[in-house]
What we know:
The chain folds into four domains: about 10-65, DNA Methylphosphotriester Repair Domain (3-Layer(aba) Sandwich); about 75-145; about 150-250, no CATH class; about 265-354, Winged helix-like DNA-binding domain superfamily/Winged helix DNA-binding domain (Arc Repressor Mutant, subunit A), CATH 1.10.10. The protein has helices at about 10-15, 55-60, 75-80, 80-95, 100-105, 110-120, 125-145, 150-155, 160-170, 215-225, 235-250, 265-275, 285-295, 300-310, 335-354, and strands at about 25-30, 35-40, 50-55, 65, 185-190, 195-200, 205-210, 230-235. The protein is of the alpha/beta class. It has a four-stranded mixed beta sheet. The chain has a four-stranded mixed beta sheet with strand order 7-6-5-8, with helices on both faces. A hairpin with a 4-residue loop joins strand 1 (about 25-30) and strand 2 (about 35-40). Helix 12 packs across helix 14 and helix 13 (about 285-295) packs across helix 14. It starts with 7 loop residues before the first helix and ends with a helix. The chain is built from 15 helices and eight strands.
Amino acid sequence: MLFQRPDHDTLYKALCDRDPSYTGQVYVAVQSTGIFCRLTCPARKPKSENCTFMDSVGACLEAGFRACKQCKPLGEEAQLDPGVADLLAALEADPDHRWSEANIIARGHDPSTISRAFKRVYGMTFLEMARMRRLSDGFTALKDGEQVISAQLEAGFESASGFREAFARMLGLSPGQFRGDELLKADWIDTPLGAMIAVCDQHVLHLLEFIDRKALPAELGRLLKSAKGGIGIGRTPVTDRVEEELNAFFAGQSAHFTTPLALHGSEFTREVWQALRDIPAGETRSYGELAKALGRPGSSRAVARANGANQIALIIPCHRVIGADGSLTGYGGGLWRKEKLIALERAYAQSAAE
Protein backbone atom coordinates (compact mmCIF):
# COMPACT_ATOMS: atom_id res chain seq x y z
CA MET A 1 0.00 0.00 0.00
CA LEU A 2 1.09 3.57 -0.66
CA PHE A 3 2.13 5.50 2.44
CA GLN A 4 -0.44 8.12 3.44
CA ARG A 5 1.11 10.86 5.52
CA PRO A 6 -0.81 11.49 8.78
CA ASP A 7 -2.02 14.95 9.74
CA HIS A 8 0.19 17.61 11.32
CA ASP A 9 -0.86 16.97 14.93
CA THR A 10 -0.18 13.22 14.68
CA LEU A 11 3.27 13.84 13.22
CA TYR A 12 4.10 16.51 15.78
CA LYS A 13 3.25 14.06 18.57
CA ALA A 14 5.47 11.48 16.87
CA LEU A 15 8.27 14.05 16.82
CA CYS A 16 7.84 14.80 20.53
CA ASP A 17 7.76 11.06 21.31
CA ARG A 18 10.71 10.32 19.01
CA ASP A 19 8.55 7.68 17.36
CA PRO A 20 10.59 5.60 14.86
CA SER A 21 7.48 4.50 12.93
CA TYR A 22 7.97 7.14 10.22
CA THR A 23 11.70 6.70 9.67
CA GLY A 24 12.53 7.21 6.02
CA GLN A 25 8.98 8.35 5.20
CA VAL A 26 8.58 11.70 6.96
CA TYR A 27 11.02 14.44 7.95
CA VAL A 28 10.43 17.64 9.92
CA ALA A 29 11.65 20.99 8.55
CA VAL A 30 11.96 23.63 11.25
CA GLN A 31 11.30 27.11 9.93
CA SER A 32 12.85 28.94 12.89
CA THR A 33 16.25 27.26 12.43
CA GLY A 34 16.32 26.30 8.73
CA ILE A 35 17.19 22.72 9.73
CA PHE A 36 15.44 19.45 8.85
CA CYS A 37 15.53 16.33 11.04
CA ARG A 38 14.32 12.80 11.50
CA LEU A 39 11.33 12.51 13.80
CA THR A 40 13.60 10.62 16.20
CA CYS A 41 16.00 13.54 16.56
CA PRO A 42 17.19 13.99 20.18
CA ALA A 43 17.40 17.78 19.85
CA ARG A 44 15.08 20.09 21.77
CA LYS A 45 11.65 20.05 20.14
CA PRO A 46 10.54 23.12 18.16
CA LYS A 47 7.10 24.70 18.49
CA SER A 48 4.40 23.07 16.41
CA GLU A 49 3.81 26.20 14.33
CA ASN A 50 7.47 26.17 13.24
CA CYS A 51 7.27 22.61 11.88
CA THR A 52 6.59 21.55 8.31
CA PHE A 53 6.49 17.80 7.64
CA MET A 54 7.87 16.58 4.34
CA ASP A 55 7.98 13.22 2.60
CA SER A 56 11.62 13.08 1.55
CA VAL A 57 15.10 14.41 2.10
CA GLY A 58 14.99 15.85 -1.42
CA ALA A 59 11.87 17.89 -0.62
CA CYS A 60 13.57 19.33 2.47
CA LEU A 61 16.68 20.26 0.51
CA GLU A 62 14.61 21.76 -2.31
CA ALA A 63 12.82 23.94 0.24
CA GLY A 64 16.19 25.30 1.39
CA PHE A 65 16.61 23.44 4.69
CA ARG A 66 19.95 22.05 5.89
CA ALA A 67 20.45 18.62 7.42
CA CYS A 68 20.59 18.40 11.21
CA LYS A 69 24.03 17.61 12.60
CA GLN A 70 22.59 15.65 15.54
CA CYS A 71 20.26 13.14 13.87
CA LYS A 72 22.02 13.30 10.47
CA PRO A 73 19.04 12.62 8.18
CA LEU A 74 21.40 12.18 5.22
CA GLY A 75 23.51 9.65 7.07
CA GLU A 76 21.82 6.28 6.62
CA GLU A 77 21.23 6.73 2.91
CA ALA A 78 24.73 8.08 2.35
CA GLN A 79 26.42 5.07 3.93
CA LEU A 80 24.88 2.83 1.29
CA ASP A 81 27.18 4.40 -1.32
CA PRO A 82 30.79 5.38 -0.48
CA GLY A 83 30.82 7.97 -3.28
CA VAL A 84 27.72 9.67 -1.91
CA ALA A 85 29.17 9.64 1.61
CA ASP A 86 32.47 11.12 0.41
CA LEU A 87 30.86 14.01 -1.46
CA LEU A 88 28.41 14.80 1.34
CA ALA A 89 31.32 15.00 3.77
CA ALA A 90 33.17 17.29 1.38
CA LEU A 91 30.11 19.50 0.98
CA GLU A 92 29.68 19.75 4.75
CA ALA A 93 33.35 20.67 5.16
CA ASP A 94 33.14 23.49 2.58
CA PRO A 95 29.51 24.41 1.76
CA ASP A 96 30.56 27.56 -0.13
CA HIS A 97 32.67 25.70 -2.68
CA ARG A 98 31.44 25.96 -6.29
CA TRP A 99 31.41 22.34 -7.35
CA SER A 100 31.86 21.19 -10.94
CA GLU A 101 32.17 17.85 -12.70
CA ALA A 102 35.93 18.40 -12.73
CA ASN A 103 35.92 18.54 -8.91
CA ILE A 104 33.98 15.28 -8.76
CA ILE A 105 36.48 13.60 -11.10
CA ALA A 106 39.37 14.95 -9.02
CA ARG A 107 37.97 13.09 -6.01
CA GLY A 108 38.04 9.86 -8.02
CA HIS A 109 34.35 9.61 -8.94
CA ASP A 110 32.58 9.27 -12.27
CA PRO A 111 30.16 12.25 -12.65
CA SER A 112 27.45 10.18 -14.37
CA THR A 113 27.57 7.47 -11.70
CA ILE A 114 27.47 10.05 -8.92
CA SER A 115 24.60 11.88 -10.57
CA ARG A 116 22.53 8.68 -10.76
CA ALA A 117 23.37 7.77 -7.17
CA PHE A 118 22.26 11.13 -5.76
CA LYS A 119 19.15 11.13 -7.94
CA ARG A 120 18.22 7.69 -6.67
CA VAL A 121 18.68 8.58 -3.00
CA TYR A 122 17.75 12.26 -2.82
CA GLY A 123 15.86 13.03 -6.03
CA MET A 124 18.51 15.53 -7.18
CA THR A 125 22.09 15.50 -8.41
CA PHE A 126 25.04 16.37 -6.20
CA LEU A 127 25.68 19.57 -8.15
CA GLU A 128 22.05 20.62 -7.62
CA MET A 129 22.34 19.88 -3.91
CA ALA A 130 25.56 21.89 -3.62
CA ARG A 131 23.99 24.83 -5.43
CA MET A 132 20.94 24.80 -3.15
CA ARG A 133 23.21 24.74 -0.12
CA ARG A 134 25.04 27.86 -1.31
CA LEU A 135 21.78 29.68 -2.08
CA SER A 136 20.33 28.72 1.29
CA ASP A 137 23.42 29.94 3.12
CA GLY A 138 23.38 33.14 1.08
CA PHE A 139 19.83 33.90 2.16
CA THR A 140 20.74 33.31 5.80
CA ALA A 141 23.71 35.63 5.41
CA LEU A 142 21.41 38.33 4.05
CA LYS A 143 19.28 38.27 7.20
CA ASP A 144 22.44 38.39 9.33
CA GLY A 145 23.74 41.43 7.45
CA GLU A 146 26.64 39.56 5.85
CA GLN A 147 27.81 39.50 2.26
CA VAL A 148 25.59 37.25 0.12
CA ILE A 149 26.42 34.98 -2.79
CA SER A 150 26.76 36.31 -6.30
CA ALA A 151 23.59 35.23 -8.07
CA GLN A 152 25.18 36.21 -11.38
CA LEU A 153 27.71 33.41 -11.09
CA GLU A 154 25.06 30.97 -9.89
CA ALA A 155 23.04 31.78 -12.99
CA GLY A 156 25.86 30.78 -15.31
CA PHE A 157 26.74 34.27 -16.57
CA GLU A 158 28.80 37.04 -15.07
CA SER A 159 28.77 39.67 -17.81
CA ALA A 160 26.45 41.41 -20.26
CA SER A 161 27.71 39.19 -23.07
CA GLY A 162 27.07 36.06 -21.00
CA PHE A 163 23.52 37.16 -20.30
CA ARG A 164 22.99 38.01 -23.96
CA GLU A 165 23.95 34.48 -25.00
CA ALA A 166 21.85 32.83 -22.29
CA PHE A 167 18.81 34.95 -23.07
CA ALA A 168 19.12 34.29 -26.80
CA ARG A 169 19.09 30.54 -26.10
CA MET A 170 15.89 30.93 -24.08
CA LEU A 171 14.23 32.64 -27.04
CA GLY A 172 15.60 30.15 -29.55
CA LEU A 173 17.65 32.86 -31.25
CA SER A 174 21.30 33.59 -31.86
CA PRO A 175 22.86 36.61 -30.08
CA GLY A 176 23.36 38.29 -33.46
CA GLN A 177 19.62 38.36 -34.15
CA PHE A 178 18.96 41.11 -31.61
CA ARG A 179 18.47 44.35 -33.57
CA GLY A 180 18.83 46.87 -30.75
CA ASP A 181 15.60 48.73 -31.50
CA GLU A 182 13.19 46.28 -29.83
CA LEU A 183 10.41 47.86 -27.77
CA LEU A 184 10.75 45.36 -24.91
CA LYS A 185 14.10 45.13 -23.12
CA ALA A 186 15.37 42.24 -20.98
CA ASP A 187 18.02 42.39 -18.28
CA TRP A 188 18.90 40.45 -15.16
CA ILE A 189 18.47 41.55 -11.55
CA ASP A 190 20.50 39.90 -8.80
CA THR A 191 18.67 38.82 -5.63
CA PRO A 192 19.77 36.72 -2.64
CA LEU A 193 17.54 33.91 -3.97
CA GLY A 194 19.14 33.89 -7.42
CA ALA A 195 19.12 36.04 -10.52
CA MET A 196 15.82 37.15 -12.07
CA ILE A 197 14.98 38.25 -15.59
CA ALA A 198 12.99 41.44 -15.99
CA VAL A 199 11.36 42.33 -19.31
CA CYS A 200 10.16 45.93 -19.52
CA ASP A 201 9.22 48.62 -22.00
CA GLN A 202 9.58 52.32 -21.28
CA HIS A 203 6.44 52.37 -19.15
CA VAL A 204 5.58 48.97 -17.58
CA LEU A 205 7.00 45.64 -16.41
CA HIS A 206 5.90 42.66 -18.54
CA LEU A 207 7.75 39.76 -16.93
CA LEU A 208 9.79 39.09 -13.79
CA GLU A 209 10.95 35.51 -13.18
CA PHE A 210 13.82 33.57 -11.62
CA ILE A 211 16.06 32.47 -14.46
CA ASP A 212 15.94 28.78 -13.52
CA ARG A 213 12.14 28.58 -13.70
CA LYS A 214 11.39 25.71 -16.06
CA ALA A 215 8.46 27.52 -17.66
CA LEU A 216 10.50 30.65 -18.43
CA PRO A 217 11.41 29.81 -22.08
CA ALA A 218 7.73 29.12 -22.84
CA GLU A 219 6.67 32.35 -21.12
CA LEU A 220 9.23 34.33 -23.10
CA GLY A 221 8.09 32.65 -26.31
CA ARG A 222 4.49 33.71 -25.72
CA LEU A 223 5.58 37.22 -24.85
CA LEU A 224 7.74 37.41 -27.98
CA LYS A 225 4.78 36.43 -30.17
CA SER A 226 2.59 39.13 -28.65
CA ALA A 227 5.29 41.83 -28.64
CA LYS A 228 4.94 43.78 -31.87
CA GLY A 229 8.35 45.39 -31.47
CA GLY A 230 10.19 42.24 -30.33
CA ILE A 231 12.32 41.63 -27.23
CA GLY A 232 15.92 42.77 -27.02
CA ILE A 233 18.64 43.24 -24.44
CA GLY A 234 18.86 46.32 -22.27
CA ARG A 235 17.33 48.41 -19.51
CA THR A 236 14.59 50.96 -19.20
CA PRO A 237 13.67 53.25 -16.28
CA VAL A 238 11.14 50.59 -15.27
CA THR A 239 13.96 48.02 -14.88
CA ASP A 240 15.81 50.35 -12.53
CA ARG A 241 12.64 51.00 -10.57
CA VAL A 242 11.76 47.34 -10.02
CA GLU A 243 15.37 46.54 -9.08
CA GLU A 244 15.31 49.29 -6.45
CA GLU A 245 12.05 47.95 -5.02
CA LEU A 246 13.35 44.36 -4.99
CA ASN A 247 16.46 45.48 -3.12
CA ALA A 248 14.28 47.18 -0.50
CA PHE A 249 12.11 44.06 -0.22
CA PHE A 250 15.01 41.69 0.44
CA ALA A 251 16.62 44.18 2.81
CA GLY A 252 13.47 44.06 4.94
CA GLN A 253 12.64 47.72 4.28
CA SER A 254 9.42 47.48 2.27
CA ALA A 255 7.07 44.87 0.83
CA HIS A 256 5.19 47.50 -1.17
CA PHE A 257 5.72 47.55 -4.95
CA THR A 258 4.62 50.48 -7.10
CA THR A 259 6.19 49.42 -10.42
CA PRO A 260 3.46 49.61 -13.13
CA LEU A 261 2.59 46.20 -14.58
CA ALA A 262 1.39 44.85 -17.93
CA LEU A 263 -1.02 42.06 -17.07
CA HIS A 264 -1.20 39.57 -19.95
CA GLY A 265 -4.25 37.53 -18.99
CA SER A 266 -8.01 37.18 -19.17
CA GLU A 267 -10.31 39.28 -17.04
CA PHE A 268 -10.72 36.46 -14.52
CA THR A 269 -6.96 35.83 -14.40
CA ARG A 270 -6.32 39.51 -13.71
CA GLU A 271 -8.89 39.40 -10.92
CA VAL A 272 -7.01 36.51 -9.33
CA TRP A 273 -3.71 38.36 -9.64
CA GLN A 274 -5.20 41.41 -7.94
CA ALA A 275 -6.53 39.17 -5.15
CA LEU A 276 -2.99 37.87 -4.69
CA ARG A 277 -1.69 41.42 -4.36
CA ASP A 278 -4.35 42.09 -1.72
CA ILE A 279 -2.89 39.41 0.58
CA PRO A 280 -0.77 41.25 3.17
CA ALA A 281 2.91 40.34 3.38
CA GLY A 282 3.35 37.68 6.04
CA GLU A 283 -0.06 36.12 5.45
CA THR A 284 -1.11 33.22 3.24
CA ARG A 285 -4.31 31.99 1.61
CA SER A 286 -5.55 28.73 0.13
CA TYR A 287 -7.01 28.49 -3.37
CA GLY A 288 -10.43 27.98 -1.80
CA GLU A 289 -10.09 31.14 0.28
CA LEU A 290 -9.09 33.13 -2.78
CA ALA A 291 -12.08 31.78 -4.70
CA LYS A 292 -14.44 32.84 -1.89
CA ALA A 293 -12.82 36.30 -1.72
CA LEU A 294 -13.57 36.68 -5.44
CA GLY A 295 -17.19 35.67 -4.88
CA ARG A 296 -16.64 32.46 -6.85
CA PRO A 297 -16.73 29.59 -4.33
CA GLY A 298 -16.09 26.29 -6.02
CA SER A 299 -13.67 27.76 -8.58
CA SER A 300 -10.51 26.70 -6.75
CA ARG A 301 -9.09 24.93 -9.82
CA ALA A 302 -9.59 27.97 -12.03
CA VAL A 303 -7.93 30.11 -9.37
CA ALA A 304 -5.01 27.66 -9.25
CA ARG A 305 -4.59 27.87 -13.04
CA ALA A 306 -4.59 31.65 -12.92
CA ASN A 307 -2.08 31.55 -10.08
CA GLY A 308 0.20 29.29 -12.14
CA ALA A 309 -0.08 31.61 -15.14
CA ASN A 310 1.50 34.48 -13.21
CA GLN A 311 4.73 35.66 -14.87
CA ILE A 312 5.51 38.56 -12.55
CA ALA A 313 6.99 36.84 -9.51
CA LEU A 314 7.10 38.45 -6.06
CA ILE A 315 5.21 41.58 -7.13
CA ILE A 316 2.18 39.41 -7.88
CA PRO A 317 2.83 37.19 -4.84
CA CYS A 318 1.68 33.73 -5.92
CA HIS A 319 4.10 32.36 -3.29
CA ARG A 320 1.53 33.37 -0.64
CA VAL A 321 -0.84 30.58 -1.73
CA ILE A 322 -0.60 27.35 0.27
CA GLY A 323 -2.59 24.12 0.52
CA ALA A 324 -5.89 24.00 2.39
CA ASP A 325 -4.16 21.88 5.06
CA GLY A 326 -1.42 24.48 5.52
CA SER A 327 1.19 22.59 3.50
CA LEU A 328 3.36 24.14 0.83
CA THR A 329 2.08 23.69 -2.71
CA GLY A 330 3.89 23.90 -6.03
CA TYR A 331 5.82 27.04 -6.89
CA GLY A 332 7.48 27.64 -10.25
CA GLY A 333 10.51 29.21 -8.61
CA GLY A 334 11.05 26.16 -6.39
CA LEU A 335 9.56 25.21 -3.04
CA TRP A 336 12.75 26.22 -1.24
CA ARG A 337 12.30 29.79 -2.51
CA LYS A 338 8.65 29.78 -1.51
CA GLU A 339 9.63 28.75 2.02
CA LYS A 340 12.23 31.51 2.24
CA LEU A 341 9.87 34.18 0.89
CA ILE A 342 7.13 33.29 3.36
CA ALA A 343 9.64 33.33 6.21
CA LEU A 344 11.02 36.71 5.11
CA GLU A 345 7.56 38.24 4.89
CA ARG A 346 6.66 37.13 8.40
CA ALA A 347 9.08 39.82 9.57
CA TYR A 348 6.95 42.43 7.81
CA ALA A 349 3.85 41.10 9.57
CA GLN A 350 5.59 41.25 12.93
CA SER A 351 6.71 44.84 12.32
CA ALA A 352 3.17 45.86 11.39
CA ALA A 353 1.83 44.30 14.61
CA GLU A 354 4.29 46.14 16.86
